[in-house]
Design brief:
alpha+beta, two-stranded antiparallel ribbon, 3 helices, 16% strand, globular
Length: 127
């Protein structure tokens, strides 16, 4: 198992190669994540960083699609209103379906979700 400094060196090398480039292909090690691959294709990599031994790839700090961001900008909304799809938007309408975004705290973490767009999976877990 690599230690923190090794993970940091890999992140630095990846950042030099990936930062500013468009994602062309995505592959996940866990099959249950494969359905999210299409959401990442076409995004631009902003940064590669670490948190402990985890390697993180950052995509713009916005969780809405470019088309949705453009539409919300055209409405004159400030960036805070379109930066995230649900995070920090408790009580506000979901950008996709209009359902009120909900919030829960679990293990001292704030969790936000749209009860319609992010309904529990058949096994009772959230996507």
């Amino acid at each position: 198992m690599p230690e923190g400094p090794e993970v940091r060196r890999v992140a630095d090398r990846l950042a030099r190669e990936l930062a500013g480039r468009c994602v062309e292909e995505v592959a996940f090690g866990l099959p249950r994540l494969a359905r999210f691959a299409d959401l990442l294709v076409g995004l631009v990599v902003d940064a590669v960083s670490t948190h402990g031994k985890a390697l993180l790839i950052r995509f713009g700090g916005i969780t809405n699609s470019a088309a949705r961001v453009k539409a919300l900008e055209d409405l004159g909304l400030p960036r805070d209103d379109y930066r995230f799809s649900v995070f920090g938007r408790e009580g506000q309408p979901c950008h996709r379906c209009g359902t009120t975004v909900r919030r829960r705290t679990a293990a001292s973490r704030r969790l936000y979700w749209c009860p319609t767009c992010q309904a529990p999976a058949d096994d009772g877990r959230r996507p």
